[in-house]
Every structure is written in C-alpha cells, then in structure tokens.
Amino acid sequence: MLVTHLSTERSFRELARTMDPILYKVALRACRDPAVARDLVQDTFERGLRSLPQLPPDTQLRAWLTTVLHNRIVDHCRVQARRQSEPLEAAEEIAQPLEDDEAWAHITPEDLERALARLPEKFQSVCQLFLIERLSYDVIARRLGIPKNTVGTRLNRGREKLRALLLGGTEEEVE
Prior knowledge:
Helix content is 71%, strand content 0%. It contains nine helices and no strands. Helix 1 packs antiparallel against helix 2 (34-51).
C-alpha cells in the first residue's frame, strides 16, 4: 500500500489492523515476551501515524512499518544488553542518602543478595526485579499483576528494609 492511497487516519487504521498480527509475530519471535512484543508493535503504529504526513508519496507502508518495527526491536535489544552488562550497582541505589557512611562502604553484592533473601516476599520480588534485573515499574507491574503505584510503594519500603538489614537493623524494622 502506497502513501498516496492513505489520505486519512482511517486508512492507516485499516492497514494497522491487517499488519498487527504480522508485526506482532515478528516482535514476539525477536523478544520472546508477549508484553514487550505488544508494546513494540504499539509504538510502531504510533510512530507510523505520527510520521504519515512526512512520508514521500511512493513509500510502501507495509515495508516501512516493518522497518520501523525492526528499528524498535534493535533499540530494545540494545537497552536490554546495556542493562545486563552494567555491574551490580543496586547497593549504591539503596544507599543514596548514606553515601558518606563508612559502614556502607563494606557491603558487598553478596551481602545485598543475602539481605534480599530475608525480605518479605512482596518486597523481595519488587526489589529483585528493579534493583537486580533493572526492569521498569511498568514491566514489574505487569509481571507481578499489581498496579504501578504499588510497585513504587513496595520498592520504597523494600529499600528501607534492605537498609535496615544491611546496616544491622532489628528484625522489627524488616517485618
């Protein structure tokens, strides 16, 4: 379908309906996560609709949308690779207000893992996914089936409990 045949958003929506299952399969094959694949396809259509007026008249929209999706997948993979190659800095994130504290300087990644294991499950899972796996609030919320605001609340409380565990707090502070 050429751009010249698409004079309205309605035509684009019709194309999107026919392309959606195709693009979704491509995205799912590339990232193996249904939620991420759906997000990538949605972003592809948003970018396509936004860019439609600027496209040259002879643009093949099916090929162009597939290229946009490909670029979104590559970007997603780069972000994931960057996250996985970063050293474990979760202890530094937990300790932001304690950076000058001498006691904090001696905490190791192993100490952090042991402290995470001692957290109550609802805090442990959120902290693990955010601090160690570096997932976004949205992804954590979808994965755990909880609201995004709950992710933030549990993460804040989990960090407080981790500080207490790592800096020698009492069991009451952890529960």
